[in-house]
Design brief:
The protein has 56 residues and is low in regular secondary structure. The chain has a domain at 13-42. It is built from 1 helix and 2 strands. The protein has one helix at residues 15-22; strands at residues 38-40, 53-55. The longest helix has 8 residues, at 15-22. The radius of gyration is 15 Å and the shape is flat.
C-alpha cells in the first residue's frame, strides 16, 4: 500500500504577483535546490536564448 503526499501552500496574493516573483530569475535560489544565486545574462530578462541565466 502506497501513500500519496500532496503538499500545498495557500498564498494570499494575486496570481500576477506570484507569477512575477516566480518567473524572475533573481529569485531562482528560493525554490531550486542546489542553486546558490542566479541573475539574467541580459538586462530585461531572457531574450529567447537557450541559457537565460547565469547560475552559481
Amino acid at each position: 500500500m502506497g501513500i500519496d503526499v500532496h503538499p500545498a501552500v495557500l498564498i494570499r496574493r494575486p496570481r500576477a504577483d506570484v507569477a512575477a516573483l516566480m518567473f524572475d530569475p533573481r529569485h531562482e535560489a528560493r525554490w531550486t535546490k542546489g542553486v546558490v544565486s542566479s541573475r539574467p545574462l541580459h538586462p530585461g530578462g531572457p531574450r529567447g536564448t537557450a541559457r537565460p541565466l547565469e547560475e552559481a
